[in-house]
Amino acid sequence: MHPRPLGAHAGRALHALTLPSLTAWPPALLTPATPFTLLLACDARSEPDAAVDEAARRALAAGLVYTVAWGPGCERVHDRFDRVIEEQGRDEVLTTWHDDEPLEEALWFFVHAAAPPTPCRTGLVAVVGACAEAERVARALAPWHDDRATSTLGP
To answer: How far apart are CA 155 and CA 153, in angstroms?
Structure first.
């Protein structure tokens, strides 16, 4: 499954992935360049813990170094990701949650403030289920696109 290139900002290529649910998180995500940051926009209230945990495992295996969780139930997503990160001994991976913010503010944080300790050239915005508003995400990210937008996807 290929994430769709959105553009770039401050040297970080931005990509989008739309999924019907977290259970659809691909086992072998064809990630943008690794390591990568993730904004997970999801209504997680009906997502089972096992699905959140497996999405975390798969994202970590693909090179995840920073997660920004947004949407209803995002604090639980944050906590579940933290649990998997701790189980794997991956203390360098950071997580935040943004439950009281509009999507545009969470995207601003993701683009401007989510700075992992590991240098990172790629950001992935995953919109899941009822939050699958890919066009809204693309419009919200439009002001931060620049001319250096290049895809860093593998073959």
So the answer is: 7
**Quick check: 43 and 37 in contact, CB under 8 A?**
no
Q: Which domains does the chain have, with CATH numbers?
A: 4-144 (3.90.190.20)
- Of the candidates 121, 128, 130, 70, the one whose C-alpha atom is nearest the C-alpha of residue 95 is 70
Q: What are the pLDDT digits (tens) for 97-128? A: 999 998 889 988 998 899 898 888 899 999 88
Find, among 108, 88, 87, the residue nearest to 98 by Cα: 108
Please report, to the nearest 10 degrees, the dihedral formed by the alpha carbons of residues 29, 17, 72, 50 taken in order.
-20
pLDDT for the residue numbered 151: 32
